[in-house]
Design a protein that fits this description.
Number of domains: 1
Structural class: mainly alpha
CATH topology: Growth Hormone, Chain: A
Distance between the termini: 20 Å
Largest sheet: none
Mean pLDDT: 82
Low-confidence stretches: 1-9, 436-447
Shape: globular
CATH class: Mainly Alpha
Radius of gyration: 22 Å
Oligomer: single chain
């Protein structure tokens, strides 16, 4: 067991650190969620097909997620301030390089550099939230992850206007510099708690938390987590649901262009496309703390099942009304609201099952599922659309991913984790009765 410390920390202090993490996440959101605004201009400028351009986002996400475990390890080893500071230069280089790129390979490399930076910011910020807030893990991880979802809502319209007025290159370079500077400043206020730190009155708080959320007593190292079947269930579920959301996130502008929504004016300079993108990100971002808060009260796995089914229903509705501008806006926004939860529920679940001590590195490994999902979502969805001549098969594939993940959450993962925690509790009581510590509780965590 990890020795805990009662180091006095002002309540406002950890919330201020959470704000700094959220600001850094806001600044890197555009790299993923504003990407769709550039896709059609890039296909015209480079005279290539859409699926070739969409590999850019795939390489970004592969770099973001593939190096995520390494970034997370560095955060645990050297602290988040240094790692996020270094990440700010990669964040700037990603978009500045994309603005200067004249070929697909140069675009791929530039955006992959941005992915390395975004992954380091994401890993550091989520890790900080998990360790500072064991008492409000779902909510606070959701706030930080929500900032990543919400960021583009603030910038979609100005980026779209700059693309139209000055070209996509200017938009990439200008916002790339701004984003790098914001991350650099925010990094100076981010730090981890002391080893073993817990909130004042933790034992009383913990008793309340455990009535609603199942939490393990172990502090599993990554190699122990990788021996657990529960980890692989979580990994499969995250791959499926990430793919479904990224299918629509990456393809939103191409879908809108095929229906003329990029030129369908509404009000205050918004088109159907820009209003949809902004509203999507508001709901995507707000869903993360909201469903994190819900999961703190009704449990992670029931919450997962509920929102995965919600997303499936929203996508089915979208297939029926995609040709109607108003309902296109409404149903896509509902889909993104349901999708946003995964970035608060999965990190919280990893920390619940495998402990807080190595939570940053453990979630870093889990987060690579997003990279696997991106291969299905980016070029995979574009190729499916090209073969079918319609976006409808893409929508139905996303529906199937969500239904399968919902079933896995409540029918397989939930009872599996319950058995694991019960075994830990039994082993701990036996060890206590025998007065022995020869069977570390953490070893039981890998039994399932």
């Amino acid at each position: 067991m990890v020795e805990t410390t009662s180091e006095p920390v002002r309540i406002s202090h950890r919330w201020f650190i959470l704000v700094a993490c959220s600001v850094a996440m806001l600044a890197v959101a555009n790299l993923q969620y504003a990407w769709t605004l550039f896709t059609t201009d890039l296909t015209k400028s480079m005279h290539v097909r859409l699926d070739a351009v969409q590999w850019t986002l795939t390489f970004f996400i592969i770099a973001q997620t593939g190096l995520f475990p390494i970034n997370a390890y560095f955060v645990d080893r050297f602290g988040p301030r240094l790692i996020v500071t270094l990440a700010s230069f990669f964040v700037a280089a990603g978009w500045v390089g994309a603005g200067l790129a004249n070929s697909l390979p140069a675009l791929y490399v530039s955006y992959a550099l941005g992915g390395i930076g975004a992954g380091a910011v994401y890993g550091g910020s989520i890790g900080v939230a998990m360790k500072w807030f064991p008492d409000r893990r779902g909510l606070c991880v959701g706030i930080v992850a929500g900032s990543y979802g919400f960021g583009t809502a603030l910038t979609a319209l100005p980026i779209d206007r700059m693309i139209k007025s000055s070209g996509y290159r200017s938009a990439f370079i200008t916002f790339g510099i701004i984003q790098g500077i914001v991350v650099l400043i925010a990094a100076q206020f981010i730090k981890m708690p002391a080893a073993g730190w817990l909130p004042a009155g933790w034992e009383a708080i913990k008793a309340k938390v455990l009535r609603k959320v199942v939490q393990s007593e172990c502090d599993c190292k990554p190699r122990e987590m990788l021996r657990s079947g529960s980890f692989y269930l979580l990994y499969l579920m995250m791959t499926l649901v990430t793919a479904s959301g990224l299918m629509l996130s990456a393809q939103l502008k191409p879908i809108a262009v095929s229906y003329g929504y990029d030129k369908f004016g509404l009000f205050a300079g918004f088109t159907v496309l820009t209003l949809t993108l902004s509203l999507n990100q508001v709901l995507n971002g707000s869903a993360r703390p909201f469903f994190g808060w819900v999961s703190d009260r009704i449990g992670r796995y029931d919450t997962m099942a509920i929102v995965f089914v919600m997303e499936a229903i929203a996508i089915v509705a979208l297939t029926l009304v995609v040709a109607r501008p108003f309902w296109f806006i409404v149903t896509s926004a509902l889909m993104f609201f349901a999708w946003g939860d995964i970035y608060s529920l999965f990190p919280a679940a990893i920390a619940d099952i495998f402990g807080s001590r190595h939570a940053t590195t453990n979630y870093g490994i889990q987060y690579t599922a997003k990279g696997v999902g991106s291969i299905l979502a980016g070029p995979g969805a574009a190729l499916l659309m090209s073969a079918a001549g319609s976006w409808i098969p893409v929508f139905w594939t996303a529906v199937g991913c969500n239904v399968i993940a919902a079933g896995l959450a409540v029918l397989w993962l939930k009872p599996r984790v319950a058995r694991m925690i019960k075994k830990q509790t039994t082993d701990a009581l036996i060890n206590k009765d025998l007065g022995s510590t020869s069977q570390p509780v953490g070893q039981a965590a890998t039994a399932e």
